[in-house]
Amino acid sequence: xxxxxxxxxxxxxxxxxxxxxxxxxxxxxxxxxxxxxxxxxxxxxxxxxxxxxxxxxxxxxxxxxxxxxxxxxxxxxxxxxxxxxxxxxxxxxxxxxxxxxxxxxxxxxxxxxxxxxxxxxxxxxxxxxxxxxxxxxxxxxxxxxxxxxxxxxxxxxxxxxxxxxxxxxxxxxxxxxxxxxxxxxxxxxxxxxxxxxxxxxxxxxxxxxxxxxxxxxxxxxxxxxxxxxxxxxxxxxxxxxxxxxxxxxxxxxxxxxxxxxxxxxxxxxxxxxxxxxxxxxxxxxxxxxxxxxxxxxxxxxxxx
Length: 304
Ligand SMILES: C[S@@+](CC[C@H](N)C(=O)[O-])C[C@H]1O[C@@H](n2cnc3c(N)ncnc32)[C@H](O)[C@@H]1O
Description:
Blueprint: H1 7-18, H2 21-29, H3 31-48, H4 57-75, H5 98-101, H6 112-130, E1 136-141, H7 147-153, E2 162-168, H8 171-184, E3 189-193, E4 208-213, H9 222-231, E5 236-247, H10 254-263, E6 266-272, E7 279-286
Parallel strand pairs: 1-2, 1-4, 2-3, 4-5
Antiparallel strand pairs: 5-7, 6-7
Helix pairs in contact: 1-4, 3-4, 6-7
Bound molecules: S-adenosylmethionine.
């Protein structure tokens, strides 16, 4: 039977568990409650469109708890986790790069990007949960500030088993991601400032059990997307999970991308999208034998 989501008890429990005057004060003033309320408002929407099923209620709760936790940490200036989940470290705004300011949309829990983040974290959590016991290798190409990977790992029970490589080229984003990793206490996560479009960059981090291409396919040519899809398995273990995102604005290329993945032996585990013009997230399992690794391939080049 479907039951209401226990937002209030989950949030209360978090407050009790995390403690701290600043958090309690924030709760009293109602700001934390308002932010959690905003998160809560769109989760039922995701449920309605089939992103989160009623059978998966425990997952709803965990996703909310996760985000409530992130919000609470970021609101508490005394917390070690308060290295600004969503704000880059640079103080001079005009000096911040385009790709650093791009991440500011994560500050707004109603933004498409924040909703996409929930979906990505949900699928990444599943992939880590379902990985066989032992080390789990995660690679995130063009990782930005690492909201997805860091947000999941900071509280995941298997975080000590995960070795994650975040590949990012932008100075500001690399700095922010490293600071957030240090604050989250997840030494198994490394940020490499390098070109994620070059397969040689991943030489010592492969094969990946989870490979992430989030925020790439909308910024490169169709030919680059196709080449990346066709060669992704060179970076993967057999049965690896691959996550990819792409916006669905005109021209919506998501059907084409799905069929390219199917062509080269991936089984689609999920396709999450709130609808046309919004984001799409594909979750796949590599069902064919991976291609051999090559260190000399160019997968993609960003257009901006
Ligand atoms: C659209 S953002 C996505 C960030 C992150 N994956 C996310 O979803 O939050 C794209 C990121 O790719 C980075 N980037 C662009 N070209 C790159 C390259 N050749 N190698 C590594 N990172 C790159 C940008 O600096 C930016 O942070």
